[in-house]
Every structure is written in structure tokens, then in C-alpha cells.
């Protein structure tokens, strides 16, 4: 019989993505579906109306696998996601720590909790062209709602810490000493760069960096520029058609 830990985490994957009740998506200018489709939800190709994450089952399973790997390998550090929406990925991370009885790692939840910033005339041109801030009625989730979502799973405790505000303001001063997994989901060039510049040095050797939005040209450009400037040569591993990760060498 499968271990209860695996059964719990298997179920948690399905609940945060709502493959249980199959809620319909919210149509938008990039994704037009109005009906639930399992393949879209598995691949993170819809904006769920009720699920606690939009990253899809493959990317949720990736986070679980990376966290289980750093636990098995004894890689020190916390978990952070920069750009959390309804909090589902961070809930999954906290659930992994709970399932393994881990009490000395923190889940950092970093978001504006207002949606995507309007970069305006001073922002990067690629961010201006993307125009995601026009969808903040869907993308802007208040911190109180995210906290309530954690509480629904019984996972809101002192191992979860919130960093509300724009990344350029919060990440330079975040009281984080080490990270085992750094997950970026800020979509924009500036948001991606802010996270890498301020947090990459805190990723432990053997830790992981996950880029949710690598398919977006602005995000991809920020990642490529940072890796080139820092001499990062670790190969990118593909999660799905949207996302990649790499493991930091010594």
C-alpha cells in the first residue's frame, strides 16, 4: 500500500489545482477557453475560477519533486515563490514540509497582493507591451484571501511568512538567509530581474531555481541576461512548454 505521506501529497496536488471539482476557467485575451479541460489544467493553460493555483499539475509536481530532492539531499534553506496569486504553490510547499515533519524551513510568500504593476512609460518596453496589469481584477488577490486559503488546509502557521509589496521594495530587505528552492512567477522583465538579483545568491549549492514564465519573452530575456552576467552555466531543464528550472552547482 502507498505510504500515507504520498497519498496526502498526491491529494494535495489535485486539490490546489482543483482537478477534484473541475472548476471552469476565466477566459482572457491569451487563453480563451470557457469550459474545464483536464489537459489544460494539467499543463497550466487556463486561469481557474476557483482553484488556488493556475500553474497546472505538471508544475505543481515539479515543486513537490524538487522539495523532496533537497530534503533527501540535505540541501539547507527555505522555499520562496515570487508571485503567488491565490497561494496554491506555496500551500503545496508547506504541505511537503508538513508531510515530512520538517519544522526548520520557512515558506516565503512574496507578492504585491495587488496584481501586476503598471510599468508605465518608465518600465521595460517588453513589460509595457505585455499589458498584464489590465487583468488585475483576476490577478490581484489580497493577502487576507491568500492567508485564508492556507488556513483552509490547516497550513497557516509560523512556518509561513508573507512579504507584501512590490519586489523592488521587499526583496532587497527580506530576512532570508538561505534558500533551497527559489520559484519565480512574476511574469515581467523587471519582476524577474528583481527576484534574481536579490535572491539568487541565497540559493544553496544543490538548490533549485524555477522560472514559471520562461515562455514570456520579457521574462526569458531577464533570465538569459542574468545567467550570462553571473556566469551561470547549469543547463535549463524543461518542466512543460511554459517553464524551466536549473540546479545550482557548488
UniProtKB/TrEMBL annotation:
Keywords on record: Antibiotic biosynthesis, Magnesium, Metal-binding, Methyltransferase, S-adenosyl-L-methionine, Transferase
Pfam families in the cross-refs: TylF
Pathway(s) this gene product operates in, as recorded in its UniProt entry: Antibiotic biosynthesis
Sections of the chain in a coiled coil: none
Gene Ontology terms: biological process: antibiotic biosynthetic process; methylation
Example of a GO MF term: metal ion binding
Zinc-finger among keywords: no
Family of the protein in this entry: Belongs to the methyltransferase TylF/MycF family.
Protein name: Class I SAM-dependent methyltransferase
Protein species of origin: Micromonospora carbonacea
